[in-house]
Design a protein that fits this description.
By secondary structure, this protein is an alpha+beta fold. Helix 1 packs antiparallel against helix 2. The chain has a domain of 90 residues. Helices cover 28% and strands 28% of the residues. The chain is built from two helices and six strands. The strands form two sheets. The chain has a four-stranded mixed β-sheet with strand order 5-4-3-6. It has a two-stranded antiparallel sheet with strand order 1-2.
């Protein structure tokens, strides 16, 4: 978690108040430390071979992938396969999985999910291109 920064009061060497002739003081904050590498959890690869559809959940905003499950009696039942809470997590998917998701249209139900669905679509369509370029660079070396 982030701690609130408490600035340090430092006397300004060059500045003086024009009326009181006292030295001015300024507040100095510490430099912000940024994450250089985004921590992402590992996902199992090539699991989205038989997806039926995927949608943005209306309450949580997560991308939910649904797969087809056939029972012995011939009944087709939808089962939830995976939930992705952030579009950045799609980077962990394999190229095969991303192409399977790109073939299906992301469904949405209301205005809020209508706003989120294109974000997921953009990342999914961008990731295979990026991964193929990186694989090509590795193959050249």
């Amino acid at each position: 978690m982030c701690k609130p920064q408490i600035p340090k009061r430092v006397r300004d060497k060059n500045g003086r108040h024009p009326m009181t002739k006292r030295s001015l003081k300024k507040l100095v904050y510490k430099l912000v430390v940024y994450e250089t590498k985004i921590p992402l959890g590992k996902l199992s690869q090539d699991i989205l071979g038989n997806i039926w559809y995927w949608y943005v959940h209306p309450k949580s905003g997560e991308a939910v992938v649904i797969r087809k499950v056939w029972f012995d009696s011939g009944i087709l039942v939808p089962r939830e396969l995976i939930r992705v809470f952030d579009e950045v997590c799609f980077i962990n998917f394999s190229v095969k999985d991303l192409e399977a998701l790109a073939d299906k249209y992301c469904m949405y139900t209301d205005e809020w999910t209508k706003f989120l669905a294109p974000k997921y679509d953009k990342v999914i369509k961008f990731c295979p291109v990026y991964k193929k370029k990186m694989e090509a660079k590795v193959a050249e070396q």
